[in-house]
Amino acid sequence: MGRAETIASGVYLIGGPNISRSEDATAYIIDCGTELVMIDAGAGAGASMLVENIAGLGLNPCAISTLILTHCHLDHIGSAPWLRDRYGCRIVMHALDADAVEQGDMYLTAANWYKTTFPPTPVDVRLSGADEILCFGSQTLHCVHTPGHTPGSMVVYFDRDGQRILFGQDIHGPFMPAFRSNIDDWRRSMLKLIELKADILCEGHYGIFQPAQRVERYIRDRLAQT
Known about the structure:
Structural class: alpha/beta
Strand order of the largest sheet: 1-2-3-4-5-6-7
Radius of gyration: 16 Å
Largest sheet: 7 strands, mixed
Helix content: 25-40%
Oligomer: single chain
Shape: globular
Number of strands: 13
């Protein structure tokens, strides 16, 4: 597999099909100076590869203070228990998806899709607002509730060096009753994302989109196709 990739200053792609394991959704690290923030955690089997990729950047994995989970599906949360136990990082996610993680629900986490299980895992911080702010030193991260794919789906965005970087993981779907998906909610969420005017979109399965015009085009194309 490949090594971590630099997206912007202090922002790195550390996991995904061509970076860690084929079943992993993309995972990212944000260097906030004295601490690291991780966005999503792959499907689980590649946990050590994620850590190796972080170390390969010259960063200390022990500095991971926070793991933000964008929603409750296994390809995004699988390594969360291991990372929490090993590094003591707090797990943050939206309250509407948190129960599935804490209960290890094999259907709501889609663990059954992967013919595996997910251990019940504590969620340290449950977010419930439309736009909640997390601060890491001088860096401010916004966690925006974007229901549709799942009830508790959310995106993360922040500004750095004059660019707005958006982690919009599974904004493409899929949409299924088993996931408690809601297309009408999703459409409203996508319009909210367009209003953010992001310069860089880090998607969960379809790669990195930039500049801003390409980000908006990707989201509008998804709306037109769904």
